[in-house]
Structure formats: structure tokens, C-alpha cells
Amino acid sequence: MKKPNSLFICILIAFCIVFSSCRKDPSVIPSQEELVFPPNPSSTLKGMFILNEGNMNMNKASLDLIDFRTGKYQRNIYNQANPEVTRGLGDVGNDILVYGSKLYVIVNVSNKLEVLDAKTAKRIKQIDIVNCRYITFSEGKVYVSAYLGKVGDASATQGIVAQIDTTSLTIEKKVNVGRQPEEMAIVGRKLFVANSGGYSPPDYERTLSVIDLVSFKEIKRIDVAINLNRVKADRYGDLYVTSRGDYYDTPSKLFVIDTQKDAVKKVFDIAASNLWIDDDIAYLYASTWSYPLQKNTISYTMINVKDETVMDRKFINDGTEKEILVPYGINVNPYTKEVYVSDARDYVTPGKLYCFDPAGNKKWSVTTGDIPAHFAFIN
């Protein structure tokens, strides 16, 4: 019997090793750092976390940090702080919150809430919540909205809001709301959550669920419009709520809700994808898709929330809006009034974060992870 050639055996073993390594879980993205602007040691805020969603099913959610005092931008800090978590942060980072000493990160398709140390980004605990979406807080509790059903499941019925104790980091209570609940806001002792029904068009939901935080029960639903998404509270007790429309004949709009009467008090006939309210100004952008036109229409608007009027000024005034392909997140520094706008670009390669001064001129921009979308300041 002829013996196998030793060279052939070596080549075969090497091939098996390489093939085996290719079959492992995707490797995590390494951490990177760069200087974006000159140091400012007197900055009131220490910095800001940036949560990059990462495209669905690619396991590329990542966490970045910009240090306002050193001027340095750090990419993928979760991976650096948690090397033992072999698959990194997970699949689709959907919301982020700093509350107390902890950083909370919603990872939607990975069905989890990551609880991290806000100083080190080191994991404290993972809390499993199926198809979780957004997070908010009040009086020692954090609240998480969740679809519950699998991603894209049109048969999914009610979603929930879960109450989590920030000391024990356990889910204490759950309350049923509408289908595919999205963003939340708290005014007084009431929590408001936008029900979208986004998995079953054209049978969208069209209500805000109102939850009494004392009893933790849904006490009513406010009829607003189809396919609700964002909910932001101003300092006058009103909510600003976005409707995405149906992407065909029903356009996106912005609604103002009186939380004393639990009713719509005003409608702005302008498209709105996301917004941030700082003092008396709401900064918003729209990136609205139209199936008939097969394109996005992009706009930027400022609203005076005190008198509820659209302002005749913009927060980007130097032409930089032409560089931004897909605005995907917005935030405002409460001390400097700088406006941060993120660009998802093509959704599969690194995005960008832009900083604009109060006059609307670009101060700096930096490359982020894939689909930068959510922000949280750190003091």
C-alpha cells in the first residue's frame, strides 16, 4: 500500500486549521484612538458616548467615546474593556443611557440590555429582554420598551415596558402596551410610550400608551397618528411625538401632546425622523423614505417649544448638510450649545459624527463605527 506524501499531509493539516479559524465567530473590532480637536480641560462635561448600531445580522454594534477635555475620540471601547466577551457588544445597538454610575446599552437583535460601569465601560451584568428597543429612567428605576416577538414577526401581539431596579439590576415588573412599542418619555408620574405596529403595515398602531408609574399599569391610550416612533418631553409638560407615516400616501408629521389633558394639542405638518430638545429649542431632522419616489428626502428644522412655532433659522448654516448622506442621530451639548449630528452613510461602512457651533458652522467631524445613532453625555 502506498504511503501518503508527507508534504500533502502538512498542506492538508494547514488547510484544516485555516478553514476552522474561518468558521469561528466574527472577531471583535479593535479599539482605536485619534485626536479630533485641541484639549479643553475646563469642559463642564467630561465626554459623550456614541452607540453605533451596526447593520442587522452583522454583529457590529460598537461603543465609542469622545473625551471633551482631551479632544480624543476612542472607537470600540467596549471590546477593549471586555475582551472576554468574544462576540463583542452584539447585534444592533438601539439605545443608550447614563444613569448614576452605570451605562445602559440596548442591543436589540441580541435581545439584551448591557449594564456597564460608566467610567470603565466594563460589563456589570447582562439582562435578557427579547427584542428590546428604548430605555428611560426615573427615581432609581430604568424602563425598557420591547417588542417581545422575533424581528419582523407580523403575528407579534402586545409589546411591553419592563421596570428594572438599578441596584439589584433585576426586572421587577412588566406592563403590556401596544404592538412594537418604541421611544418613551416620563412627565411627572406618567410614562408615555409610542406604539408603532411597524411589523404589520398597513395595520399600524396609532397610539401613545400612558402608564401610571405608581401602580405600573396602562391607564389609557392617546390617539395620535400611525406608526409613531420618537417621544421627547419639553420643560413645559408637553411631548413632541413623531409619526413616520406609511412611506406611501400618509406623510411623516410631528405632534405636540398636552400631558395634563393627555391629548394632541398641535400638529406640525413637517416631516420628522428624530429630534433633541434643549432649553426652548427642538432641533430636528427628517430623512423620510418614499416608496413611490424610491428616495429619501432630508431636511433640518428648529422649533421654539415655548411658543410652538417653527423658527426661521437652521442649525447647519455652512453648507455641510450636503456632505451628510443619511442623518441618523442628534444631540445638543447643554452647556456649549454645540449640535452633534451623525451620518449613517451607506449603513455598512463606518459613519461620521459632525459637531456644529451655535451659529451652525462645522467645528469638527470624525469617523465612527457603522451607523452611529445614539448618544449619552458623561459628567
TrEMBL record:
The keyword Signal applies. Keywords: Signal. Residues 1-20 form the signal peptide. The keyword Signal applies. It comes from the Bacteria. Transmembrane segments: none annotated. PANTHER family: DIHYDRO-HEME D1 DEHYDROGENASE, PROTEIN NIRF. This is Lipoprotein.
